Amino acid sequence: MSQQKESYYQKNKEKILSKLKEKYQNDENYREKIKAKYRELYHTNEEYREKVLKRAKKCYHEDENYRNMTLERAKNRNKKT
Questions:
Q1: Hey, what's the torsion of the CAs at 70, 71, 73, 75, to 10 degrees?
Q2: According to the model, what pLDDT value does residue 1 have?
Q3: Cα–Cα distance, 71 to 42 (Å, whole number)
Q4: Rounded Cα gap, residues 54 and 62, in angstroms
Q5: Is residue 79 very low, low, confident or very high in pLDDT (cuts 50, 70, 90)?
């Protein structure tokens, strides 16, 4: 009995995530609700903020396309002001 039973989520992870992704893309109310949830989490949870910033910093330094898109967004934002 060294094997543990897989949870429902573990068994169906890809299916569940694909449904949520589709729902996010198609349902504007759901999309706004999720954005608000993670925006609040970012501002209230220090651990989550550190995790997000660390991931973004890693992407910026390792992925040239991500870096170029980030620089382009910054240029566009500065043009508006």
A1: 170
A2: 41
A3: 22
A4: 12
A5: confident
Q: In whole angstroms, what is the distance from residue 34 CA to residue 63 CA?
A: 26
Predicted local distance difference test score (pLDDT) of residue 2 = 44
Q: Report the b/e string of 7-44 with b at 16+ CB within 10 A.
A: eeeeeeeeeeeeeeeeeeeeeeeeeeeeeeeeeeeeee
Please give the pLDDT value at position 17. 95
Cβ atoms of 42 and 49 within 8 Å: the answer is yes
DSSP secondary structure of the chain: --SPPPPHHHHTHHHHHHHHHHHHHH-HHHHHHHHHHHHHHHHH-HHHHHHHHHHHHHHHHH-HHHHHHHHHHHHHHHHH-
* Closest CA relative to residue 59, chosen from 48, 69, 49: 69
